[in-house]
Amino acid sequence: MTVSEVTTAPQDTRKPSFWYGLPVGYVSLDLHPPAERLMGIVNQLRGLPEQELAEADRALRLYTGIVSLLNTNRVQECALGVHPDDHGGFTTSVFTVSTMLTAGNSSKLVVAGLAGSAADGGAEGMRPLDLPCGVGFLAEKRSPAPRSSRRPEVSDAAPSHVWQGTVAVAAPSTPELIVLQVVTPHLDSADAYRDILLGIARTLTFTDPARAAAGDEDREPEAPTGAAAAMRNDFG
């Protein structure tokens, strides 16, 4: 698997900044579409036949509603994933990155407590993680898929359950948790998507890769370490 890009959210939406590798097969959803782009879409819709216009209008409203909901929940990144399976078809997933405020002044204490509980077997579906960027934990579960009350015909065709994997890591010197999450309706592919989620988590870093690369230009070549080594190992 190869990494498609190193991703970070807008600098004014979170402190400290963090970076991670997004695997090939994922396409990011624009969570901050400029007004000009939305107006351009609206103008294009006006030229559609009446029946197509109604469907396109519903799709646009759904998109803007989802974007608003994600921004309200402090989601920094949302990417849609499509990957080939072993049967000649494709599996789909949604990857999100969000920040979560914790009570108190140290998110590290929160993560340490949760990781300790997972290690002691006190939290079902959880286990601690020792990542290049620090201590974290992995939680996973299978839960009922969201249903639409407005369009029951869509819900009837939707999968009944989804697999949800979550990795949480403490941000340095702040009360924030960095939360990485993958959700897929393909339960048989849960192991593969768990590996993808853990691979992304191992690339998470709080050091700007561009600055690190600039500092390395004057040094002798050496084997990569930390997040750089994790990114090479996990995403080639």
Describe it for me?
By secondary structure, the protein is of the alpha+beta class. The protein is 36% helix and 30% strand. A hairpin with a 5-residue loop joins strand 4 and strand 5 (90-101).
Overall pLDDT:
75
Large-scale geometry:
globular
| Order of H and E elements | EEEHHEEHEEHEEHHH
Total count of helical runs of at least 4 residues: 7
Distance between the termini: 6 Å
Assembly type: single chain
Structure classification: alpha+beta
Instruction: Tell me the number of strands.
Output: 9
> Could you name the ranges where pLDDT drops below 50 across 5 or more consecutive residues?
9-16, 153-157, 224-233
SSE layout and pairings?
Layout: E1 3-7, E2 20-23, E3 26-28, H1 35-45, H2 50-72, E4 75-84, E5 90-101, H3 107-119, E6 126-131, E7 134-144, H4 152-157, E8 161-170, E9 176-184, H5 190-203, H6 209-216, H7 226-235
Antiparallel strand pairs: 1-2, 3-4, 4-5, 5-9, 6-7, 7-8, 8-9
Helix pairs in contact: 5-7
Give a brief rundown of this model.
The chain is α+β, with helices and mostly antiparallel strands. Helices cover 36% and strands 30% of the residues.
Structure keywords:
two-stranded antiparallel ribbon; 7-stranded antiparallel sheet; globular
